[in-house]
Design goal:
The chain has 288 residues and is an alpha/beta fold. It contains 6 helices and 11 strands.
Length: 288
C-alpha cells in the first residue's frame, strides 16, 4: 500500500513539473514576442521620424531655392522688360499681342510665365503658332504665325460668310475677303471664330484649293465656288464658268488630269462647259 501511494505521489509531482515547464515556456515566448513588437514599433517610429525630417528638409530646400531665384531673377530690377519685341507675319499688331498676352514693358522678365503667355495667344482664332524667348537682360521676344484665310464658308444668301484657313479653323470677320472661293452647301450649328469645322467634304474642298494653288495648276484652274453638300463628290465652279464634278478620293491625280484637260482644250481653242472627273476612264467633257 505504501508503495502504491508513493507511485501516485511521484506521478502528481512529475505532472506539476511538466506543467511548470510548459508555463515557463509560454511566458518566455510571450516575452520574446513582446520584445519583437517593441523593436518593430521602434523601427517604425525611426522611419516616420526620418520621413518627417526629409520632408521638412525638402520644403526648406525648395523654399530656399525659390527665395534665391526671386533675389537673383524674378525680383531683380536688372531684368525689367524695357523692350517687348513683337513680330507677326500677318495683321496682328504689337498692341493686340500685349492685350491678348497680358504683358507689357516694366514687368520682370523672369516673373512672366511664358507658358501662360503662349496659351493666352494660342486661343486667339487668328494665331496659328507662337514662339516666345527671353533675351537678357531686358527684352521679351514674341513671334506670331497667323492663320491665312483660303475660303469663305457660306455666302450672303445663307448669312454672313465666315473665313476658313487650310486646317478648317473658322477665322474672325476681318479675315473674310470677296476674292476668296466660296464653300457652299454646308450647315453646322455653333460656328464661331476658333472652331474647327469637322466635315470630310469641307476638308476635301480645302485640300482641293491647296492643290490648285500650285503654280503650274493655278494658271488653268481658278476655283470660284465649291459645293460640299453631297457626301459623295464635290461640285466645282471654275472662274471661267467651267463646271466640274470631282470625287472625294484620289484627289491629287484627278486635279492634275483636270488641269491637262483644260489646258489641251484651250490650246485647241475649245471652251469647256463641264467635266465629270468621277469617271475613271474616258472622262466625259462637254464643250460650249
Amino acid at each position: 500500500m505504501w508503495f502504491k501511494e508513493d507511485r501516485g505521489y511521484s506521478k502528481r509531482r512529475y505532472s506539476n513539473i511538466r506543467f511548470a515547464d510548459s508555463r515557463n515556456s509560454i511566458l518566455m515566448v510571450s516575452a520574446r514576442v513582446s520584445e519583437q513588437k517593441k523593436k518593430i514599433r521602434y523601427k517604425l517610429g525611426a522611419v516616420m521620424l526620418l520621413i518627417v525630417v526629409l520632408a521638412g528638409t525638402s520644403v526648406a530646400v525648395v523654399q530656399g531655392a525659390q527665395r534665391v531665384y526671386e533675389v537673383l531673377f524674378s525680383a531683380n530690377e536688372r531684368f525689367l522688360i524695357e523692350k517687348l519685341d513683337v513680330i507677326s507675319d500677318g495683321k496682328l499688331r504689337a498692341e493686340h499681342v500685349r492685350q491678348y498676352a497680358h504683358v507689357e514693358e516694366g514687368m520682370n522678365l523672369f516673373a512672366v510665365d511664358i507658358q501662360k503667355v503662349r496659351e493666352s495667344l494660342e486661343v486667339v482664332p487668328l494665331v496659328s503658332s507662337v514662339e516666345i524667348r527671353r533675351r537678357l537682360p531686358d527684352t521679351l521676344e514674341v513671334r506670331i504665325g497667323e492663320r491665312v484665310a483660303v475660303a469663305r464658308l457660306g455666302d450672303e444668301s445663307t448669312g454672313y460668310p465666315m473665313a476658313l484657313d487650310r486646317e478648317g479653323v473658322v477665322l474672325g470677320p476681318g479675315a473674310v475677303s470677296a476674292h476668296l472661293p466660296i464653300l457652299s452647301g454646308f450647315r453646322m450649328a455653333g460656328l464661331r471664330p476658333g472652331v474647327r469645322v469637322d466635315s470630310r467634304t469641307v476638308a476635301t474642298a480645302l485640300n482641293l484649293l491647296e492643290l490648285c494653288d500650285a503654280p503650274h495648276i493655278n494658271r488653268f484652274l481658278k476655283v470660284s465656288r465649291v459645293d460640299v453638300g453631297s457626301p459623295d463628290h464635290l461640285d466645282i465652279l471654275l472662274a471661267q464658268g467651267e463646271s466640274v464634278r470631282m470625287p472625294l478620293t484620289n484627289l491629287s491625280p484627278k486635279v492634275e488630269e483636270l488641269c491637262q484637260i483644260i489646258k489641251m482644250s484651250a490650246d485647241r481653242g475649245q471652251a469647256v462647259a463641264s467635266v465629270d472627273m468621277t469617271v475613271d476612264r474616258n472622262v466625259p467633257v462637254i464643250y460650249r
